[in-house]
C-alpha cells in the first residue's frame, strides 16, 4: 500500500513538533504559573474544538437543507436524475480533495494525545511485566523440577543398563557352566552367607550380653528386690543391692555395728586379702545373678523362636515385655516368646 509523500511529511512534522514541545516542557520546571497557563491553554483548545464541531454541524445541516431532494417529485425525467447524480459526485469529490485539519502550532492537543498514549503503553507494559514475571518464576520452577526428573531418569537408566549388563554376563557365564557346577556354587554361596549371618549373630549377642553386664543387670536386680523399675535409676551400686530396699522402694540404710571383736576383724581382713570364691560357679552378688538370669532367658528365647518357652515371673521377663521384645501368651502368663518383627502386632 503506497502512502502519499505529503502525508508522510505531515506526520514527520507533527512528530518533530511534539518532540520540541516535550523538550520545552522538560526544560521548564513545574510551577503554579505554568500549571495555570497550561490549564488556560487546555480550556482554549477545548473551546476551539467545540466551536469547530458546532460550525461543522451547522454547515452539514445547511447542506442537507439545500441538497434535500424529494424523490417523489423527481418523476421519470432522465435529465433530473443525471443532474442529481452529478451534484452528488461533485459533493463527494469536494470531500475527498479536502485536507485534514491538524491542530495549530502551540496547541496542547498533540501533547495530550501523546501523554494519553504513553500512559496507556506504560499501563500495558506494567501488566505485561507482572504477568511475564509470574510466568518466569513458574517456568524456572518447572525447569528445576524437569532437570531433577531428568537426572533421576538418567540415574535409573544407567542403573538399569548396568543391571542388564550384569545379568547378561551372569547368564552367559551360567550357560557355559554345567548344572552340577552351578549347584556347587549356589551351595557354597549359601554356606558363606550362613557363616556371615552366624558371625553377625555372635557379635550381636556379645554386644547384648556386654550391655546386660554393664548397665542392665544392676537395674534388674534392683527391681527384683522391690526397688525402682528398670530405667528409673540408671546406676545402682552393689552395696545398695546387698542392703536391699524397703517396702516403699527406698534403699535401706547400713546398720551401725556397736560391738566388734577380734574374730570379726580377723575374718574381715582375710576376706579382703583372699576374696570368697564362688561355690560351683554361682554368682558372687545379686547383680551377677540378674545378669545370668537375663542371659539364660535370652538364650532360651532365641533358641525357641518363634515358639513359647516356660518362664517364671521375674524382672527380666517383665522388662522384655515392656521393651516390646517379647510377649506373653494370651491365655498363659507363664509362657513367653520373642516378637516377630516382620509382622504387624
Detailed description of the structure:
The protein is mainly alpha-helical and 345 residues long. The chain has a domain at 191-254 and 285-338. Helix content is 70%, strand content 3%. It has helices at 5-27, 32-66, 71-74, 78-97, 109-176, 179-224, 238-243, 262-273, 286-304, 315-322, and strands at 309-310, 326-328, 335-338. The chain has a three-stranded antiparallel sheet with strand order 1-3-2. A hairpin with a 6-residue loop joins strand 2 (326-328) and strand 3 (335-338). Helix 6 runs antiparallel to helix 9. The radius of gyration is 55 Å and the shape is elongated. Mean pLDDT is 77; it is low at 258-263 and 265-280. Residues 243-269 are annotated as: Disordered. One of its GO terms (cellular component) is chromosome, centromeric region.
Q: Summary?
A:
By secondary structure, the protein is mainly alpha-helical. 70% of the residues lie in helices and 3% in strands. The chain has a domain of 118 residues.
Amino acid at each position: 500500500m503506497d502512502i502519499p509523500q505529503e502525508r508522510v511529511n505531515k506526520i514527520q512534522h507533527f512528530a518533530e513538533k511534539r518532540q520540541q514541545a516535550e523538550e520545552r516542557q522538560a526544560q521548564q520546571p513545574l510551577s503554579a504559573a505554568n500549571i495555570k497557563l497550561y490549564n488556560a491553554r487546555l480550556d482554549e483548545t477545548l473551546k476551539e474544538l467545540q466551536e469547530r464541531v458546532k460550525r461543522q454541524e451547522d454547515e452539514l445541516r445547511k447542506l442537507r437543507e439545500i441538497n434535500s431532494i424529494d424523490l417523489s417529485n423527481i418523476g421519470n425525467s432522465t435529465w433530473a436524475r443525471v443532474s442529481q447524480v452529478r451534484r452528488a459526485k461533485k459533493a463527494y469529490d469536494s470531500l475527498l480533495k479536502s485536507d485534514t485539519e491538524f491542530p495549530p502550532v502551540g496547541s496542547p492537543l498533540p501533547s495530550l494525545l501523546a501523554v494519553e498514549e504513553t500512559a496507556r503503553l506504560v499501563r500495558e507494559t506494567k501488566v505485561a511485566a507482572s504477568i511475564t514475571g509470574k510466568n518466569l518464576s513458574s517456568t524456572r520452577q518447572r525447569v528445576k523440577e524437569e532437570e531433577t526428573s531428568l537426572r533421576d531418569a538418567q540415574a535409573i537408566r544407567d542403573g538399569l543398563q548396568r543391571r542388564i549388563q550384569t545379568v547378561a554376563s551372569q547368564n552367559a557365564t551360567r550357560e557355559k557352566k554345567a548344572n552340577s557346577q552351578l549347584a556347587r556354587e549356589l551351595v557354597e554361596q549359601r554356606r558363606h552367607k550362613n557363616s556371615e549371618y552366624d558371625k553377625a549373630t555372635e557379635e550381636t549377642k556379645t554386644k547384648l550380653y556386654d550391655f546386660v553386664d554393664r548397665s542392665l543387670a544392676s537395674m534388674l536386680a534392683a527391681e527384683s528386690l522391690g526397688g525402682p523399675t528398670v530405667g528409673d535409676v540408671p546406676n545402682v551400686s552393689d552395696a545398695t543391692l546387698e542392703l536391699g530396699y524397703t517396702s516403699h522402694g527406698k534403699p535401706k540404710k547400713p546398720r551401725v555395728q556397736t560391738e566388734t571383736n577380734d574374730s570379726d576383724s580377723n575374718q574381715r581382713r582375710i576376706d579382703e586379702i583372699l576374696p570368697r570364691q564362688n561355690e560351683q560357679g554361682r554368682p558372687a552378688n545379686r547383680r551377677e545373678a540378674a545378669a545370668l538370669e537375663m542371659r539364660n532367658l535370652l538364650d532360651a528365647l532365641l533358641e525357641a523362636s518363634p515358639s513359647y518357652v516356660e518362664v517364671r515371673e521375674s524382672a527380666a521377663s517383665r522388662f522384655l515385655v515392656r521393651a516390646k521384645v517379647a510377649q506373653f501368651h494370651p491365655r498363659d502368663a507363664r509362657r513367653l516368646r520373642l516378637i516377630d518383627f516382620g509382622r504387624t502386632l
